[in-house]
Design a protein that fits this description.
By secondary structure, this protein is mostly beta strands. It has helices at about 110-120, 155-170, 250, and strands spanning about 5-10, 10-15, 20, 20-25, 30, 35-40, 55-60, 65-70, 80-85, 90-95, 100-105, 125, 150-155, 185, 210-215, 220-230, 235, 240, 260-270, 275, 280-285.
């Protein structure tokens, strides 16, 4: 039986994730996922591609979304946590995400000063407006907050284990799952289960690529596209700095996508919102052919 073994939401795009035992899946993904974004003073999105220290920002958001805390995880310390009352009534402003223009609600001078000081470059913090109606593309259209594309990113431990085997062939060390920033991590046995791993679909590397519809807990997901990987995977999430050429160098040897780039993991839209918990079964309702 394939089950959910990790659930991670990323309240602030580009910053560290928060692991949860259960959450509500909204039409835009896991609750509060990518609902905030760090931007330049001109409103252009910041990413770990250029600002790897974003990985050291540890955001947490209250269940109702009214309070946001930004904490810094860095060896030298020196940055105290910032607690914010989230505003949804401030004036909207244009923000740029991959060249597309959306609206954001600026969260004020205190947040801007904290991020500017920590990142070493003038920055602002914006929130997705309640009226945000972004349309995402792919096989199953949907919506999302400030995610790169689709609402939910799914990755299996079998896929990561296969990558580790490929890395070992190059005498390269294994990489943590957080390099790939998934929302839902699946495995072929529940966390803590003893004994041999069941010989089912989730033990096959990249089986998530073939899922077209799946019910997990009370939610239903529809496949949109493969996850094309970028330079963010090169960032050591604990150090907040680039760590070297892996995993892109190794992935390029066996996961090249015909449309360009390398792929690892799959993206999904939310077909039916609902509660999702670690331990929930991943019930695949429809399969398809992998696009690679």
């Amino acid at each position: 039986m394939a089950t959910v073994v990790e659930l991670i939401t990323y309240p602030v795009k580009g910053c560290a994730g928060t692991s949860v035992d259960s959450t509500h899946v909204t039409p835009a993904g896991l609750a509060h996922d990518r609902s905030f974004m760090v931007v330049s003073v001109d409103g252009i999105y910041r990413t770990q591609r250029r600002d790897p220290r974003l990985a050291l920002v540890r955001p947490t958001v209250s269940a109702d979304g009214s309070r946001l805390t930004l904490a810094a995880a860095e060896p030298e310390g020196g940055h105290g946590a910032l607690h914010l009352d989230v505003t949804t009534s401030a004036p909207r402003r244009d923000v740029d995400l991959f060249g597309a223009t959306y609206q954001g609600i600026d969260q004020g001078e205190e947040a801007a000063a904290w991020l500017t000081d920590f990142l070493g470059t003038p920055s602002r913090l914006v929130r997705v407006p309640p009226e945000h109606d972004r349309k995402t593309d792919g096989l199953t259209p949907g919506t999302s907050g400030y995610a790169d594309s689709s609402a939910v990113h799914v990755l299996s431990r079998a896929s990561l284990a296969h990558l580790h085997a490929r890395l070992a062939e190059r005498d390269a060390p294994p990489l943590a799952m957080d390099r790939f920033r998934p929302n839902i991590v699946i495995d072929s046995r529940p966390e803590g289960c003893q004994g041999e791993q069941a010989a089912d679909w989730a033990s096959e590397p990249h089986a998530e690529d073939r899922i077209r519809r799946a019910t997990i807990g009370a939610a239903e997901l529809g496949y949109t596209k493969l996850a094309v990987r970028c330079a963010v995977t090169l960032v050591d999430q604990e150090a907040g700095a680039r760590g070297g050429p892996e995993p892109l160098r190794t992935l390029a040897g066996y996961r090249r996508f015909s449309a360009g780039g390398v792929v690892f993991g799959a993206k999904f839209s939310v077909v039916r919102p609902g509660k999702l918990s670690v331990g929930d079964e991943v019930a695949v309702e429809e399969w398809g052919e992998a696009e690679t």
